[in-house]
Amino acid sequence: MVIKVFLATSSGSTAIKKKQQDVVGFLEALKVEYAELDIACNEQNRMWMRQNVPEEKKPSNGIPLPPQIFNEESYCGDYDTFFDAKEDNTVYAFLGLPPPPGSKKHNGDAQGEEEGQAGDEEEGEDGRADDEATELETSRGEEEEAAAEEETDEEAQEEEDEEQEDEQLHSQEEEELQQLEQDQDEQGSEEEEEDTELQEEEEEAE
């Protein structure tokens, strides 16, 4: 398949000349095989180009200006569409050609695959990081639960010790109270004995 570039070698328009040079220069840089067809000196080329440019692609006056690009008999586009394809790195698709190895399109696909793989690796690393973070949080949670249970056990033990101390103190108070009552009883018995003795002495004295 040969790319056909219709151009006007003797055009007086500087803009048209620049556009033609841009197209030809870029095709040469890509090492794309192409053929230049002059419409200024060849009436047949001019008529063929005008007949094969689609009506919707023609300007309002119906006369398409060069450069116009074809792949054999198939219309590719004009300079504007060629420029857009060049900016998007889709020139081979624009020309209807398969991108060769090492081309920008091919490299773009390869780069896309590498970025996809890198993205998968990053996702894998992120996934592992999330798993590690989850495990760490779980471990922390278990440690906190264990610490809380231990603290609860300590509090329960302290309450039990306090209850035992209260019981011991209560028992001690009861013992002291019983001892005090016993002492009072003994004291009362002694006073009664003294009163009895004093009464007996008074009776003897009478």
Topology overview:
Elements: E1 3-7, H1 14-29, E2 34-38, H2 43-52, E3 68-71, E4 74-78, H3 79-87, H4 91-95, H5 104-205
Parallel strand pairs: 1-2
Antiparallel strand pairs: 1-3, 3-4
How many H/I helical runs? 5
SSE series:
EHEHEEHHH
Structural class: alpha+beta
Q: How would the global form be characterised?
A: rod-shaped
Report the major sheet. Answer: 4 strands, mixed
Rg from alpha-carbon coordinates: 55 Å
- Please provide the count of β strands: 4
Distance N terminus to C terminus?
166 Å
* Strand order in space, largest sheet: 2-1-3-4
Low-confidence stretches: 105-110
Beta-strand portion reads 5-15%
Describe the structure.
The chain has 206 residues and is an alpha+beta fold. It is built from 5 helices and 4 strands. It has helices at 14-29, 43-52, 79-87, 91-95, 104-205; strands at residues 3-7, 34-38, 68-71, 74-78. The protein has a 4-stranded mixed sheet, sandwiched between helices.
